[in-house]
Amino acid sequence: MATTTNTSTLTSKAHSIPLKASPSPSTTAATLRSLYPRAAKAFLQRDISLTYSLLTSAFSIILPPEIPTQDSLHIHRRKWDILRITLETTVYASPPPPPTPSDPTDTLPPALRSNLLLSPQSLLTALHTRSLRLFTPSSPPQKPNPAFLPPQVLVTLVLGCLKLECEEVGRGMIDDWLARRGEGLKDEDGYEKVLEVYCLHVLPRLGEWEYAKDFLQFENELPIEKRERMIQSLQYDHAQTKASRSTPKTHPPRTPSPTPSTSSSISTSSTHTAVPLTPRARATISSFTPSISTTSLASSSSSTITPQRQASPHLPFLNGNANASVYTNGSATNHPTTKSRQSLSSVSSPLPHPPTLPPIQRSSSPTTPNILSLIKASIRPHLTTSKILSFVLLFVIFPLVSLLVRVRRRKLSGSGSGAGVGSGMGSGSGVGARATAEEVRKSLMVRRFGEVGVVGRLWKEVVRAVGDGVRMGGRGLV
């Protein structure tokens, strides 16, 4: 019980009292070594406040190195920076719920709460710059240099970029590190890990499969075995990605419906029985009138529709059964036959298939309509009864009536003029006057109608009647 109390007291002190830098590097290393397990355990238990408090206490005594070759805190600096980057990216990706009126306590420190206001690119760039400043030697004074960034810290930053879907930012970090790598300390194991993340994770996320393959083929620092292993892994991942994109989505199969009973199959499939049109089947149908339908209905209770060859007791079953079952009045009677016994020992000859109709050959080239059909199609909408009657009345009956009226008027006027001439002249010259009047009438007819026959006269009368009708319609008389 006393131990628990002491632990709680130390924890509360770690929250409030930051550690001071010790002049002895060994003392600083011992302090960092004792704090790190507690910070890692608090992070695994999702105790963000305690983890951040221990990180703040640790980095209060961790300073940039003065000389890279004589840095005794290099391992502790790397471990604590990796833990800090992991905590901040994890909180940014999945932050805890904000305080509510029912629970006003805020478990997130203000510094981590302010990180949530940044964009992913800005946050990752800030973390990268802070790490560069932490590992760049202070003597002589210089700008943050990616060459001094440990590969393990770089891999942690790039994995954070992948977690926050900022692959371009991670690629820029690795490119800067590879460009300045020769200036700092070399770590072959870390270099291999950086190339693995770069070629197998970052570049494939960006779709740069060919560039990653070319990069590994022209790389000359890794051993051949490790380089070939990376190339094979890259090719396998590329093939899997192509297969996943080309394969269509498969829908789950439909659950089979339960097998219907004999009574349900009789009531539902009585009109859908398929029977082969063979002489033997016809004889069977004629011999078993009520029972054969029952047999076909009982056999059609399966999920697929098959030709009803079980109707005849002389035909072997397709499924290899030795006995042919015939249902009569709801009961099944088995009749073993010689052919059915032979079907068990050897494969029977294929049963005759029902005759199929020859396929209908349809001409692929469309028929082009001729001129007559086009004319009929254009005239057909106008050939209605009312329009035909109007056409006949206007262009046939009305001109004929007008023609008859004109002819009758001419005859009446001719007879009147003949009578006048006969009264004015003497009786002796009556025949000559009548002949003269006849010649004058003919000359007038020739002048009026010309040398045309009956058809020409009829056409002129039709034209004149139509013109009169149009003029009367224009004057409002019709």
Automatic annotation (TrEMBL):
Superkingdom per UniProt: Eukaryota
Biased composition (Polar residues): 320-339
Composition bias type Low complexity, residue spans: 1-12, 260-273, 295-307, 340-350
Annotated region (Disordered), positions in chain: 1-27, 236-280, 295-366
Record key words, sorted: Membrane, Transmembrane, Transmembrane helix
Residues spanning the membrane: 388-405
Coiled coil (UniProt feature): none
Name the record gives this protein: Uncharacterized protein
Organism expressing this protein natively: Jaapia argillacea MUCL 33604
